[in-house]
User: What shape does this take?
Amino acid sequence: MTGDSYDVVIIGGGPGGYVAAIRAAQLGLQVALVEQEHLGGVCLNWGCIPTKSLLRNAEVVALLGEGRRLGFRVDGFQADYGAAVKRSRQVAGRLVKGVEALMKGNGIAVVEGRGRLTAPGVVGVALNGGGEVELTARHVIVATGARARSVPGVAIDGERVITARHALELQERPASVVIVGAGPIGAEFAYLWNVYGAQVTLVEMLPRLLPLEDEEVSAEVERAFKRYRIRALTSARVAGVETTDEGVRVRVQKADGAEETLEAEKTLIAIGVQPNSEGLGLEALGVVTERGWVQVDGRMRTAAPGVYAIGDVTGRLALAHVASAQGIVAAEDIAGLETHPLDYDAIPRCTYCKPQVASMGLSEAQARQQGYDVRVGRFPFLPNAKALALGENEGFVKLVADGATRRLLGAHLVGPEVTELLPELVLARSAGLSVEAIVRAVHAHPTLSEALAEAAHGVFGRAIHMV
Assistant: This one.
């Protein structure tokens, strides 16, 4: 069966693919979007959005547990995890409908099926309803994302040994769980399940939780998790996982060589992702991959003429907002507009456990390794009026600046709602503004954002509300 001809065919309808489709359509291009499952991809359906919905429920549950400190009492309170999961699915479903409306409103043809490049400018689609169709296009954007990877030798069965996607489908929280990997996904599920009463153990191969964050940030989160009685084993490697009738046995080798067997109802594997690049016909057209990751330039072009790639499949930063930004770059390049390659050092990174973590750019250690004249400004949330009013005053803001140019190199925040505080700092970094620009910007009182100004003052040793 022969389909229509388009200016752009996009394979994958996640946050990279559907955003690229909208931007291309806005620029007057005829666009088709091929998606095998649900529009919105992993992020909207089985990742970012449902987890944040569940974490919001967890925050409320935790708050109600602190009634005595805040001056109220709740009798007979029961937390219904299944109801929280149902709400998370409703939130995701509503957003999927929103994306569907955006496709229709922008005149984008949505083709439901699995797409692959069969020849230059030709995308063959095995339709979900049966049969096949060929779409021709001047340009193709590969936005097929990535999937969870497992520990070598450990089979994911979806029942006892699960990924985040399986975890989001659970109608009951596990009584006990071993989480392998203490990055953002591991930390978020650890906090969520702990609030709902699960016994949680985190196992991390590297020396600290959230190992890609600034060391001081990791230490703050580790202290908080210790207070929550979340057990954390760092510098520990999983030697094997055995499933039993009751659950799982996870063998862990510690840094000192000792081995410990952890028993739990389930184990969540959260050690990263691998690209969905196989079976797409990429290599036959000259697309270069490295360990499966599609190689692209600053305009998101692959080595094959007319073929672009965006999102997790490129192996840059596996974040939804990165995929969206890359999608806009690709669409604008296809339309002939001047494009600006992304500055990946200015990309915000967020973890939504409690305390929240937000970061951008170089850590203090990275800045020193690269030879900068490092100046650091820190300000804790403890004296921040809004944080005190919220009853959440743990954490701090840490800014890393270059003493020679006074420009912001990195920002590292841990504390209440810090994921909402990054845009000002990302803008300062992207625009090449000096730290003085943050100082001069008047921040409303009382707000958490005042901690940004105080930390910026602190770069020069003159924070106002700290001796």
